[in-house]
Design brief:
Elements lengths: L6 E5 L4 H10 L1 H4 L2 H4 L2 E4 L4 E4 L4 E5 L21 E4 L5 E3 L2 E8 L5 E7 L8 H21 L9 E8 H5 L13 E8 L6 H8 L4 H20 L2 E2 L8 E3 L8 E3 L6 E2 L23 H5 L7 H15 L23 H10 L10 H5 L6
Antiparallel strand pairs: 1-4, 2-3, 5-7, 6-7, 7-8, 8-10, 9-10, 11-14, 12-13
Helix pairs in contact: 7-9, 9-10
Length: 362
């Protein structure tokens, strides 16, 4: 079975991501629990690959493009890829995303390019955004884990603008001597949750439940890594091609933050005012004091409301404090679920783990 999927095994010491952690904590502490139990779980193919004790798997993408490679070689330069710079997959305030193909593994990827000459952001804002996103990528890569509901983050690097311009990327003259920052991730070609909400004028409650559970599981994984997304919204959730109701992934970590090791996820230790209007938590928008990872729970609530209400954002009655914009077809359980997520007081909101165990999602 293993050979047919193109699986080979190498000692942990051969993988640079594992060396430092194994030396500090011991190999058994570094290995994820599910790997120590004797198997590598592949969430995309729902199979267990045999792994010998003390060894980490190296999966060859050339043979199986859906397996999660914990020791897949990290991209180090633009030369590792064939990139189509003539047509962007998407453009945002922090950069543009292009399709690419890894030369060695033949894996299709999406490459986000951040230029220091972006007109929509100051140099200071750009530097902060690049540093935050780099930190998130490094945090996930060091963990050597992935999740079926979070886009695979494959690596980040920087390179001279001249290298990209030779491949067709248009770079402003004032940035010709500046380095470009690259963030490489798996390419997802499915539609976004926002597109589906607009196309179908909202989701049936059963479909909304399944999508919500998947988003929650992705957020739970990120929070477990100490990562707070800070921009949860339908546009940042993509379906995989030919997906079921639950086959979707969280994307875009340009606003994400890392909770310091010394802090708890529920402690108020984040400060930047980031997010999207209509989805950002009130304590973040106020900008008066630090906030916690529960800002993601509020944004999740807005996202669930958009699914049920056909894209309309939640509104509360000014005196009664109840939802007035949910459709009549929404169940009382859905309304109660949203009330808990959308509490204006962070301390009254559930954690993402508590959300997963809520009655509406069972």
């Amino acid at each position: 079975f293993g050979s047919s999927l193109g699986v080979s095994r190498v000692p942990i010491g051969h993988c640079p991501r594992w060396i430092g952690r194994a030396a500090r904590r011991g190999a058994s502490a570094v290995l994820p629990r599910w790997l120590r139990l004797g198997g590598l779980f592949c969430p995309n193919m729902l199979r267990m690959l045999s792994v010998r004790s003390g060894r980490a798997p190296r999966l060859t993408w050339r043979h199986c493009g859906k397996l999660v490679a914990m020791t897949e070689p990290e991209p180090r330069s633009l030369a590792d890829f064939e990139v189509n710079f003539r047509a962007a997959l998407g453009t945002g305030t922090c950069g543009s995303v292009y399709s690419g193909l890894h030369r060695d593994t033949h894996r299709e990827v999406a490459i986000k390019v951040v230029s220091p000459a972006l007109p929509s952001a100051s140099n200071e804002e750009l530097a902060i955004g690049v540093a935050q996103e780099t930190q998130v990528f490094e945090q996930v890569l060091q963990a050597c884990e992935s999740h079926p509901h979070v886009v695979d983050l494959l690596g980040c690097f920087q390179g001279p603008s001249s290298e990209a311009t030779q491949l067709g990327l248009e770079v402003p003259e004032e940035a010709a001597e500046e380095p470009l920052h690259y963030f490489v991730m798996e390419r997802l070609s499915g539609e976004s949750l926002a597109d589906r909400i607009e196309r179908e004028k909202g989701l049936e409650e059963k479909a909304a439940k399944e999508a919500t559970r998947s988003i929650c599981e992705g957020l739970s994984f990120l929070h477990g890594q100490g990562i707070v997304h800070r921009d949860v919204k339908p546009a940042n959730v993509l379906y995989t091609p030919e997906a079921s109701e639950s086959d979707l992934k969280l994307i875009d970590f340009s606003h994400s933050g890392i909770v310091p090791d010394s802090e708890d996820l529920n402690s108020r230790c984040l400060q930047s005012t980031l997010g999207t209007a209509g989805y950002v938590a009130p304590e973040v928008l106020a900008g008066r004091e630090p906030y916690s990872a529960k800002c993601d729970v509020y944004s999740l609530g807005c996202t669930v409301h958009a699914m049920l209400a056909g894209g309309r954002l939640p509104r509360r009655h000014p005196r009664l404090g109840i939802m007035t914009s949910l459709p009549e077809s929404a169940s009382p359980e859905a309304s109660n679920f949203l009330d808990s997520l959308l509490s204006p007081t962070p301390e009254l909101r559930p954690t993402i783990h508590e959300v997963l165990s809520s009655s509406w999602l069972q």
